[in-house]
Structures
1.
Amino acid sequence: MAKVIENQQDSDALSLSTRPDIPLGSHPVETEDYQIPTNEILKVFAAVTRWIKLRVTGATIYGRPRLGKTWMVKFLEKNLSKELEVNLPIHHIVSLHSKIAKEEEFLETLLSDMGHDFAFTGKTSVKRNRLIAFLYQQGNANRYRIVLLFIDEAQCLEELHYEWLIDYYNKLDKLNITLILILVGQEQLNGQQLVFSHGHADQIIQRFMIEEHKFVGIRTLEDIKVCLKCYDELSEYPAGSGWSFTRYYFPEAFAAGERLQNFSKEIFEIFTTLRQKYNLKGVFEIPMKHMTMAIKIVLLDYGKNSSKPQHWISKKNWVDSILKTNYIISEQRKNPNSVKQKRECP
């Protein structure tokens, strides 16, 4: 028995000796500069990959706030090119809003969010030509001859904005470049299709709302397990080090075979119990923001870098961490029996 303990101690010592030396505050868990493929994100990933291969020129992805849509876009930006085996130009447009009434400002926003060096130089016609030339250059450089735009908070777009986008689409189409728009937004985005059809704006639907996907949060035990498994196995920092996020924060426990994914059932039960205790109605759904925040709190408050590190995590630690994410308060504010409130567009 003594020999076994000695070997375990040697193993733990070796594990700690090879642990990466990462400055405090710079690990991806702390900076939140990482993406993990939840079940729902993988579904969207498959759908968007299919849309690109079929050259579907536009689609909507909609869902309530905080479910992880922005997290999803970041994952797609990083992984679509690898999946398609082509250096696909992808732009994430985040600054468009309903108060843009002039095409010049619209063009400036697009160019700026795309990282163009001369977004604010020249007249409207010059900026328009600059945008088309920029997108043509990028589209012409890949064998798909496609440029992909994710437009965030797309429920804020007005009919006039879509008319400008159709003009850019048509100009690029004449150059044999396909502009694909993925409109990402809240649930109001789904209703815009009906509004446009009643307003005889079918050209918008036929160009940019051909397909749709309702984005949902974490709903099942399996969803939770997939999420946690990413921290155990699919995450790594620094790159090539072999140190997953779980291993870095709990090296001894990880060496002993402990994994976050083993808490999947307990976490599902904690959320279920909390919903019952606070009389939360509606579909069981954990927004990605609250799930990743609970995991972050567990890793930082109880892991190796904390002021009072623990060997491993307890169920009580999970309960405390989930409550600290303000999940209950957030769900209480969402009254499923009331008229859905539209968040103000920026």
Note: Residues 112 and 200 are 32 Å apart (CA to CA).
2.
Amino acid sequence: MAHVRAALAIATVLAVGVTPAVLGGTATAAVPPAAGTATTSTTGTVVQEGGPLVVTSGEEGAVTTRITVTLPTGHTGPVKARLLLPKPTWQWPDGAEGYDPVTPTCAVNGGAFSSCPWNIPGNEVVFPATEASTTVTYDIRVDADSRAAVMGTLTATFEVTDETGAVIGSGPVVFRFVSGTVEASRRTTVLARDKAGVLWQYPSSGRDDKPLKARQRIGGGWDIYTSITALGWRTAAGQGDLVARDKAGVLWHYEGSGNPAAPFKPRVRVGGGWNTYTAITANAGGLVARDQEGVLWKYTRPFAEPDGGEVSTDLFWPRQRMGHGWNAYNVIEGQGYDDDAVARDASGVLWSYRMARDSSTGGAYSPRGRVGGGWNVYKSLTWAQNLNGRGQDDLLAVDKNGRLWLYESSSWNYGQLPSSIRKEIGWGWDIYDEIL
């Protein structure tokens, strides 16, 4: 999705090719020299120490470049500096428009770093004013979101002016944004319960060649549950909730803690009677559940009251009937961050269901679409949400030999479908009886 921003934080830092005026004469066009070399004229010199700054966009953290300005002799009083930014020419990832991908902080003459304000109409990053001296140093520290990598190489014009507004120093500053590790808050984590009742987590890595990191133990005692289901978006940063049904039919809520080492808070009782359902799965932050008669029910989380009042203290609104005939399926898997679902019938055909966008349907699915046959080779299917951080949910499948397969999703009429291409990403997963 193309998106043109009027301004960006210092990640969008980069050059509009502003031509400085020559003191005592008419403004003339000039071709800036390569970064890392001095710009010499009656306006002084500007050097980006070490050349272009390589910004690894993601978890790798902030990097800093220093700009050394040597001013012409005879200048006194305060001087101001700004970084003139280029007009964006790249395409943001779908759904990423409207955010600031870079967090810049600035320092002058080795002082403390502070946030650099930027002027939206002028496409510029503004530095704190300082007193003129023969040499002034400006440091720019850049921390970039992983999505900033699409900006590539950007060239900005660094400009210093005196108290009259006359340009007394100007030169290029270059930034090269490259892909790094997608942030943990934008990747998911796969949970798996072994046959001894121990719950394990596999944080996603954000890498295509090895999507899952080594497993980490969450804790034991999870064999008291007959069903465990994710609620909403679950991340490798320890965010996201679970619900679990015990053998007596009581549903328990585990709220996400935000701590990857201990991702869930102590459980809270939701209510009893949930053993009437033969399948429970996720649905856009809530649940869908199939009863013994094959009727599907939807449970929506009350993020806000319908009339705009206070948020409900209940975990779910009263259930809504979505349809019948769901006993035809031996697997029903909903997406925790979307309304869509897939279901496998007894002959191994996988079907897709997209939530109807027409409010008159009362929250039912649109007519199903056929994904394909042969899916009975798998003993389990689960939506793993987003392993690589690129915005699409991923379907995981474990075959009868314990091999783990990844089906990355493709967009489908405002929904998502597993692709026709699978990739093996693990083995030995037959030790688990629950994967989510």
Note: The chain has two domains: 10-179, 184-435.
3.
Amino acid sequence: MRYLTVRLVPTESGGFHPLGQQLSAESAVRREAIHHVELLDDGTVLTLAEGSGDRERYETIMAASPSVHRYMLSGEERWMAVSQFEPTEPVRRILAWQRRADVVVETPIRFGDGGSQTVTFLGDDSAFRAIFDAAETAAFDLEVVQTGEYDPDARWFTRSLTNRQADVLAAAVDVGYYRAPREATQEDVAEAVGLAPSTVGTHLRKIEAKVFEALAR
């Protein structure tokens, strides 16, 4: 089995849905991730989503939205929200396609700037080709982030590393760069992988940024 991580960017700024646009534009609310999304038989969508910030403002937006049938929250400054709402037609088509396609979506789905979403699909190359075909008629742009063989024991940030970054990380661990106290320098890591120290430094900063971003979430 393979994985394909993509970034879905709405063609209309803010989100895939008017509710998403409103939430993305609200500075007091941060949309963190979607932990479950499902197209129900009645055509509505059920989601389990994570958010943070001003819970009261979030509830005000949800209560005022004509597309929301019902919602329920748990938590305060960081919360989980179960909601059922009417999707737009593009969203409904995407979820209907996903339900019948030979592909699995790995959760959580992470939110990014401008309402973008980073999604990892599990399947084979034929299923991934179908994803690109579906994207051609959808209301979003699709950007490939990473692809490769799927390891269910790997954390998402290790799968997001390039092959070169993975080599640098492995070398840094082997030579003791991350031991306490530190037993190696960037020059030692560079010698182990055959790269310039400045290049290794750049790789290590990018790796560390991904790791700390994952831990902060």
Note: The mean pLDDT is 86.
4.
Amino acid sequence: MSEDIEGFTPPRGSTEVYECEFTPQEQSKIIHRIDRRLVVTIGILYCISLMDRTNLSAANVAGMKLELKLGVLVGSVSRYSIVTLVFFTTYIFFQPPATVLVRKIGPRIFLSAIVVAWGAVMIGMGFVNEWKDLAALRVVLGILEAGFFPSCVYLLSTWYSRYDVGKRYSVFYLLGSLASACAGILAFGLMQMNGLAKLTGWRWIFIIEGILTVILGFIGYVALVDFPDAAHRSYKFLNPREVKFIIDRVDRDRGDAVPEAFSLAKFFRAGYTDAKIWGYALIYFNTTTVSYALAYFLPVILVGMGFSVGASQCLVAPPYALAGIVMYATGWIGDKYRTRGPIIIFNMVLCLIGIPIMGWHSSNAVRYFGVFLTTAGANSNVPAGMTYQANNIRGQWKRAFCSATLVGFGGIGGIAGGLVFREQDVPHYYNGLWACIACCLFNIIIVGILSVAFWRANKKADRGEIELEQNSEDTQKGFRYTI
């Protein structure tokens, strides 16, 4: 019976009966096997990706700023801000073709190859002597990392039903948050290698983390899995009957388990005319503006509060630990109660409480408490935003386009996050704080508009006036937007 299929509910009004050859216990075991192989592997790789992308802040306070003269202004922008934002120019541009390549080449080969390549680039950063060389390597890093995150978001969405994917996105991003939590402590430890092989401490941050990335890239080649329709290429960790169960399960949930043949025109046409895709992208832009601003400048902000360099590196960890708890809790609640918009609003309210405390309270201890709330809300909203779009999109190529667009706007948010806390605003960064507040308010407005539009569309579909999310792959009846 359909009720036995974990995470699946028949379309409203449907009288069709679904049967499954596996018992509920066997179904759970299959899903958990996929979790261990897929979610954990890409989560660990994302962990090192986020660490490599954001370790500039740790290296900056560890001596890189002085050695490469990154505090010097170029026009009205510091060299450090330029180095942070050039990464996103290529990161944004190369994301749409990357989601096509991952579908064509397969995640196991594609993802492991780019991880190894960007690890080599990270090692190279440890040997630069000019800030322009560092900026050039960041451009190359953007090209390589462009394919990773959208491909992972897309890959996860193909394996799970809509009301299973929220927890998986949360765990995936949670592992990345652990990187943010531990990166400062790791960087502080690597700083102690200062003078070894006549290299300063900040260089060892890049070299050691780059070596770790290369090693994990080779491990990823063995551990990663392909898309469900090509699972036979992944060392047969599922047998044909189990693969069929997964494909049928996704088809019954949203009817798009197997993709159509690729067409460039179809790839872009499937998404760019759909207004809600740009709504999801704006939500992600606003979210990442805040989260990247914290990732790049939190150690600097803590130093401005009066903490030492070592204390600032270590004090980054506890707020990200709280973010992990909130992230998983909201993901679990969203899946259980099949709601998405209110989760995003809740996270933004946390930020709206935390940012003013962090910026304007007279006590440093209380301001640090504000850092906890802001970090938890901003980072928890990343998987919440991914899940919101994944639940309300049908069609493989539309899903691929949406993943690329979503993460592309996240890259634009990275540029904004690298610019909102300006050198000339030290030590209070009031302009940056106001920008983050505006992003949070904007997200609440967008979710409100989409929620009303989804509610009205669902009502019309219930009355038989329209059919939602039709695509040429399938015309599944009964699809409803998740509010």
Note: The chain is about 75% helix and 0% strand.
